[in-house]
What does this fold into?
Amino acid sequence: MLLTISTTHKPATDLGYLMHKNPIRCQSSDLAFGTVHIFYPEANEDKCSMAMVLDIDPVEIIRSRKRISGTQLEQYINDRPYVASSFVSVAIAQVLGSALKGQCKDRPELIELEMPLVVKISVLPSRGGQEILYRLFEPLGYEMSIEGYRLDEKYEEWGQSSYYTVELKKTTTVKELLSHHYCPVIEF
It folds into this structure.
């Protein structure tokens, strides 16, 4: 699962201070369900992008469950390692917790600074389709673009999948942006 947050605020590298993550090095943290990796594919004065990749261990998820339903094979076949889920909320809280709380001891003047931010969530499940995604994020003031996927390009009759890549744009504080993405990434 991949989540990116980008800004063109000048200097764009202020994003690193707000996230409490140094743009010049990759960082990884172990979580109960896998590992989260934070890195900056782009970090200069004009544009800065932070990427969060969740590397979820599907076997550990199964082993940690108290009650398992379905057949033995069904336990190991799921989309959890590949899609945005409640695991994203856990990663945001544990790895970006200071930014979520609006803390920045090195540059406290940045906490309330509104900057142009773009969030891209790849891949977000939505059983309610695009409509529910618009109903969820548009009232919060986001400009949105949504890319849907066909179940199979060769078999158009199979229709659309319930997975989307969502890009959201808004001028806001990093704290507000993270708080909006802390909960909505659960399946809906």
